[in-house]
Write a structure and sequence with these properties.
Blueprint (H helix, E strand, L loop, with lengths): L1 E6 L5 E6 L6 E3 L23 E3 L7 H4 L11 E6 L10 H11 L5 H15 L6 H8 L8 H16 L5 H12 L3 E9 H10 L4 E5 L1 E3 L5 E5 L7 H15 L4 E8 L5 H6 L2 E5 L3 H10 L2 E3 L26
Helix pairs in contact: 5-7
Length: 318
């Protein structure tokens, strides 16, 4: 991993890692200043090849690419994608639980509690998102971060990447070609999304991060809040304000499949409901959102007669 010295917005010299693939930049990292390089490599908090960008460098033009298109008002055009059910068929945390249960890395009692939570969630009852993620991460609590991240990267490569929707890949590529900033906003675990960034045209991502103990091992506690529901809008706004500047960007496109994505879709200039569940279908029809049929394979959102006429949307440079 190469490094480069830049001058940040505060006028301080900062040594910044230079990722070999521009897709794998994940801002808001742990490293700062000369220590930023420690966030890359075999002992990184993320899989090999993924590099966190130190907060001091978030405003560096060279990290934003040369082809980002701005609107007539001079604003960067952001295309935000939900991950589970939108970019992939199915739900990565659910698939992870099945995998961990099969490998006997979670106690049967823990699996049962997760299943009970899932039943309540499907019934659309209020649930504690942090609590259930803590249950899942009991499989990794006390284990070195780099080891867990490698495990989750291998899990993604073996079981999740094949579920990536071709239509999602095409949409991301069209947005990139149009000069839009492609951002994943996901409640899934950060190392899983980081693994997706290696293989797919994802420029930036914000995902659920688990706390790390002082000894460099994972805990089973969420750092902050899971990136779910209205929290997606809040973290996306904070992220883009830091990356592009407050008032210097707009949510031009948003893609989601679940009714919990309503808040993010509602903020977009062009909202796309992807194989939506029934509640989101009703909202999409009422609000005039574009409804996209990206496939009805196992694990997709609920098929419904309420769905509107669907087709892939066109994307243009603004």
């Amino acid at each position: 991993m190469e490094s480069d010295t830049i001058v940040d917005r505060k006028g301080l010299s900062v040594i910044m890692p230079v990722a070999q693939n521009s897709y794998v930049l994940i801002p808001e990292g742990q490293g700062k200043g000369p220590d930023a390089q420690e966030c890359c490599g075999a002992d990184a908090y993320l899989p090999q090849g993924i590099c966190r960008v130190a907060p001091e460098g978030l405003g560096a033009d060279r990290l934003m690419g040369e082809n980002l298109v701005r609107s007539a008002e001079g604003k960067v055009q952001v295309a935000a994608f939900d991950f589970d059910g939108t970019c992939i068929r199915g739900n990565s945390p659910v698939l992870l639980v099945r995998y961990l249960a099969k490998k006997r890395m979670l106690a049967p009692s823990v699996v049962l509690r997760i299943l009970l939570w899932a039943g309540c969630y499907k019934a659309r009852l209020p649930q504690n998102e942090s609590w259930v993620r803590g249950l899942v991460f009991r499989a990794f609590a006390g284990r070195p971060v780099a080891e867990v991240n490698r495990f989750l990267a291998e899990f993604y490569n073996a079981y999740i990447d094949e579920r990536f929707r071709p239509a999602a890949q095409e949409a991301m590529e069209r947005h990139e070609a149009a000069g839009h900033a492609v951002v994943i906003v996901s409640a899934s675990f950060e190392p899983i999304i980081a693994a997706a960034m290696v293989r797919r045209p994802i420029q930036y991502a914000v995902a659920t991060r688990m706390k790390v103990a002082p000894n460099g091992t994972y805990t089973n506690q969420v750092e902050g809040l899971p990136i779910e529901g209205p929290q997606k809008v809040e973290v996306l706004s904070t992220f883009c304000d830091e990356l592009f500047g407050e008032g210097q960007w707009e949510l031009a496109y948003a893609y989601g499949d679940h009714h919990s994505d309503r808040a993010m879709l509602g903020e977009a200039r062009h909202a796309c409901a992807v194989t939506p569940d029934r509640p989101l279908t009703r909202t999409a029809n009422a609000e005039g959102y574009e409804i996209l049929d990206w496939g009805c394979d196992a694990g997709d959102g609920e098929a419904s007669e309420e769905r509107g006429k669907s087709e892939n949307g066109s994307i243009q440079a603004d």
